[in-house]
Amino acid sequence: MLECTPKEPLPKDARTTGSINPIKTCQPVGALYAALGIHGCLPHSHGSQGCCSYHRMALSRHFHEPAMASTSSFTEGASVFGGAANLKTSIKNVFAIYNPEIIAVHTTCLSETIGDDMPTIIKQSEIPEGKYVIHANTPSYHGSHVTGFSNMCKGIVSYLAESDGNPKKERANIFPGFTNPGDMREIKRIVTEMGVPSIMYPDTTGVMDSPVRKTYEMFPRGGATIEAIQDSGNSKMTLSLGAWSSDEAAATLQSKCGVPGVPLRIPIGVKATDDLIMAVKKGFGVDVPEPLEVERGQVIDTLIDIHYQYEGKTVAVFGDPDIVIPLVEFLITMGMIPKYVLTGTPGGKFEKIVNGMLEEAGIEGSRVKAEGDLFDLHQWIKEESVDLLIGNAHGKYIARAEDIPLVRVGFPVFDRAVHPLMPIVGYRGCLRLIEMISNVLLDRRDRDCLDEDYELIL
Amino acid sequence: MTMTDVNIDEILAPMPDKVKKNRRKHIVKKDASAGCRPQIEANTRTVPGIITQRGCSYAGCKGVVVGPIKDMLTITHGPIGCAYYSWGTRRNKARTDDSTPPDQIYSTMCFSTDMQESDIVFGGEKKLAKMIDEVVEIFHPRAINICATCPIGLIGDDLGAVSKAAEERHGIPIIHYNCEGYKGVSQSAGHHIANNQIMERMIGTGTEKVDGKYVLNFLGEYNIGGDAWEIERVLEEIGYTVGSTLTGDSAYATIKNMHTAHLNLVQCHRSINYIAEMMETKYGIPWLKVNFIGIDATIDTLRDIAQCFGDKELIARTELVIERELAAVTPEIERYQKICRGKTAFIFVGGSRSHHYQFLLRNLGMEVMVAGYEFAHRDDYEGREVIPTIKSDADSKNIPELHVKPDTEMYRPPHLRLKMSQEKYDELVASGVLNEYRGMYPDMVNGGIMIDDANHFETEELVKVFKPDLIFTGIKDKYVTHKMGLPSKQIHSYDYSGPYTCFRGAVTFAKDVAHSLSTPAWKMITPPWEQSITEQR
After folding, report:
1. What are the tens digits of pLDDT across the range A408-444?
2. Residue A245: CATH number of its domain
3. Which of A203, A380, B116, B462 fits A224 for a cystine, CB–CB 3.0-4.6 Å?
4. DSSP assignment letter at B13
5. One Pfam family name from the record (chain B) (predicted)?
């Protein structure tokens, strides 16, 4: 596997352009995923058919769920004359045939490059009474899939959220970031456990983890309702989880409706979960209920019990910034050594934040890179290997080539099931991460050791 | 099974009039008593807003045809997405062999110029040229593919000029494909663009003659789940040599010598018939439409191939291999037939597979009620004789036609390639064995539906009418089918199973289908506390 990757490290200026085995993809897939978090929404891709097909495929492979979306089906004609006619026809046909509550349009590099004016085209379209069409600009040549998720979240706020001018309700908005439905469910549970009502959006629970019911529902029962999203302008505060995926939407809601946003990390690991709970406690003056205290205590107990199974092990972590940052923090908490940390998403602050955490922990000699790719990582590993890889499924080729165990976290995970349902957030998520990490390391030790070292007692 | 008198107009009734009128032409019912083939509309634009299964030209070119060429490094020139989604998406298995060492295999990797906003504004040619220089320096590939994405055509990057200059710098073939996603109406445009370049830039450039008494090329076989390897095993046991496949487990090193073969086998008619025809004209290599999906279909195909050479020993050896393979799999097939018999299915997949799998399902006692292609042309449904009557529209005119002439040095008349007399060859052509494909329609079950570019709405309605037991589809529709309470099998990726070809493949397929139908969970969808209510209903 990957035998063509040079055995020796490359000279520093050998690679200056392009991406080899990327750790990011394009904006629209994130926008499509975010749009699926609105109840009754049909995401619509404004461009040629391939984009929509690829994005639906990527989401279906990761979630093992239908990911419905329509497309403007550009051919050469639309590319020359503009896509206005295609979008207007699409909107008309989509409402007539599929009858969604709302259509969430995102652009592609094609419609962005020809410069289709989305707000104007939407204004000129026939939209049935009581139905909505919203949009986000998601050019693929800027940012990553995380940027697209963020842009659609911002679009949802801009089009739908309203403030009625009355005093704010004792309620939290939760912007969960680009996470799996299992994570969103767990975040809602934690806030509910604290006795605080909440509105989460986008909310793909019930949409991208829906049960089999024997009848297909094109618009599954989950997702944030339009009414709830509209009313989010009247909430007391917004818990904005993940700077890259949620902060822009929170800032927009703050300036549009005066709902203050509290910027937090996605609650992966003890500290990030503590921060979320403290923010809710402080914001609403509530106590932390015993069940959450118990859960936290269980995590600390486990960390104490089995730290020797993973402490001091080196690990390479790659993925989306909002996932990787708190994950690295947790790995440091576990006593592990994040040796290589990469994201594909651009943004210098990623390197600053991760380097800051490493420095604070006194970890030296690690490499951190934003806008990195898996070829960078592979080259680093060839120079000096690590004990464990943590990242998306594309890491499996390096895992095999270099014989390093891989723990699958993030997006996409194509080659395993169940993961979208199982949270890695909150204290329960901590336990799951510890279990996954320590198990692969122990399995590895059992696999590699001599017969006389093969032991049951640890 | 009962033949439901399906009313297509009723199914389409909720659609807006214009859409209804358009879609009506894409849906055809098999009526054996009518005596003639009805015309189906295909290879025309998808209605905007319709949830289609189709992809784009880039997907057809890079994703399907050129991406699997294992020893070529393929750079996608464009923003990150297109390269990313066509990375490790299709299961075109590849392995090292005599001509391709492990450090020359690139097909599992993803190369993108990752264009940024400034590249869109100022042009991406310099970035592409630089990336070519860098990957040549790092990987030393034998040859490189450059595939274009939507914005490339819009901003006018000249891929031809960049490739040509880089070719001169590095002394290796650098082949470009103007396969921008918006070209044509589906993946089909990309297949055609890829075919043209493979024909013009690869085939015929090699000088090594493939050893073997009967050398075959295998066109339109992508080695999903090892399909090509199973076919090769059987063919080699009979005494053939497979020169190269196009393009599953194929290599630039072997593709360039394909012109030396005696006969071309065409598996996927849609994606590769262009090359088959052009090789016939340019080099005199005849082609034979084959189908290795299904036991009876495989037997017929093996006999057809043997007949093309007319060698008695070859024919005898063919029968021997058929007998031996058949004996090995028959008891196993019978075991699964018990579960499968009488069941019905829908099948939606590109190429020729919606046609081919009907034979395999019939071996299991199943029947396909609704079948459709994503990106086919009329000839894939109605047979090649309609080709002269197909009117080309604006979308298909955008795809350049490559006109080839007999090669002055390398052309050898087809009958000499097959080592037979001109009369015997003419007979084979006249009998419809060589250079012919009759399409899906003749093999559809009476009362069944052929549907082109099937969309989600129509599929759901047809499920209500036919109540199939199983749907063969791709990933986008797989989980929709599951939610309907119906089993589905991915027929693009085989759900990571396979191979499904020839005799042993039929057993693997039979087992997979039987398991899909009978997995205990299907009976557990209704929880016990609701069962009494269900029974009352």
Report:
1. 999 999 999 999 999 999 999 999 999 999 999 999 9
2. 3.40.50.1980
3. A203
4. T
5. Oxidored_nitro
Cα torsion angle, A95, A98, A99, A105, sign: negative
Token digits of residue B533:
């209510």
- For the stretch B338-385, pLDDT in tens is 999 999 999 999 889 999 999 999 999 999 999 999 999 999 999 999
Task: State the best of A36, A46, A53 to mutate against chain B, taking most chain B CBs within 10 Å.
Answer: A53
Flag whether pLDDT at B5 surpasses 80.
Answer: no
Min Cα–Cα distance to chain A from B38, Å: 27
Alpha-carbon span A251 to B242, nearest angstrom:
63
Report yes or no on A187 lying in a domain: yes
pLDDT-based confidence at B4, cuts 50/70/90? low
Nearest CA in chain A to B113: A18
Same domain, A200 and A309: no
Residue A215 shares a structural domain with residue A97:
yes
**Which residue in B228, B209, B188, B179 sits closest to B77, CA to CA?**
B179
CA–CA gap between residue B344 and residue B363 (Å, rounded):
13
* Contact between chains at A18 and B127 (C-beta distance less than 8 A): yes
Q: Which of A6-20, A264-278, B448-462 has the lowest mean pLDDT?
A: A6-20
Q: Nearest C-alpha of chain A: how many angstroms from B403?
A: 23
Mean pLDDT of B129-153: 98
Instruction: Kindly state the tokens that stand for A210.
Output: 């829906």
Q: Which residues pair with A389 in a beta bridge?
A: A316, A406
d(CA B473, CA B359): 17
Q: List chain B residues with CB under 8 Å of A73.
A: 45-50, 52
Is B45 in the active site? Answer: no
**Which position among B59, B189, B502, B514 bears the catalytic label?**
B59
**Run of H or E residues at B177:** strand B174-177
Choose the closest CB to B14 out of A54, A97, A114: A97
Domain boundaries, chain B: 57-201
Report the C-alpha gap between B451 and B466 in whole angstroms.
14
Task: Report residue A340: phi and psi, to 5°.
Answer: -125, 130
Of the listed B77, B90, B176, B270, which one is catalytic? B90
Active site (annotated) includes residue B77: no
Same-domain check for residues A146 and A242? yes
Kindly give the residue spans of alpha helices, DSSP state H, lying in B157-225: 159-170, 187-197
Tell me whether residue B148 is one of the annotated catalytic residues.
no
- Considering the domain architecture, whether residues A249 and A347 belong to the same structural domain is answered as no
- Taking the CA of residue B390 and the nearest CA in chain A, the distance in Å comes to 20
By Cβ distance, the residue of B49, B103, B111 closest to A18 is: B111
The amino acid at A228: A
Q: Which of A250, A266, A282 is the last residue of a domain?
A: A266
Q: Domains in chain A: how many in total?
A: 2
Does residue A2 belong to any structural domain of this protein? no
> Could you give the CA distance from residue B330 to residue B351 in angstroms, rounded to a whole number?
28
Whether residue A178 is found in the same domain as residue A237: yes
Considering only CB atoms, B479 lies closest to which of A24, A66, A78, namely A66
A447 has a chain B CB within 8 A of its CB: no
The sheet carrying A388-391 orders its strands as: A367-369, A337-342, A314-318, A388-391, A406-408
Is B475 within 8 Å of A89 when comparing Cβ atoms? no
Q: Which fold has domain B57-201?
A: Rossmann fold (3.40.50)
> Do A232 and A139 share a structural domain?
yes
Q: B389 vs chain A: nearest CA distance in angstroms?
A: 23
Same domain, A55 and A199: yes
CB contact under 8 A, A51 and B56: yes
Q: Is the dihedral of CA B197, B199, B203, B205 positive or negative?
A: negative
Domain span at residue A165 reads: 23-266
Size of interface A-B (CB pairs under 8 A): 263
Neighbouring residues of B526: CB distance < 8 A, sequence distance ≥ 6: A214, B534
A316 interfacial to chain B (CB closer than 8 Å): no
8 Å CB contact of B480 and A51: no
Q: Where are the beta strands (DSSP E) in A242-293?
A: 261-264
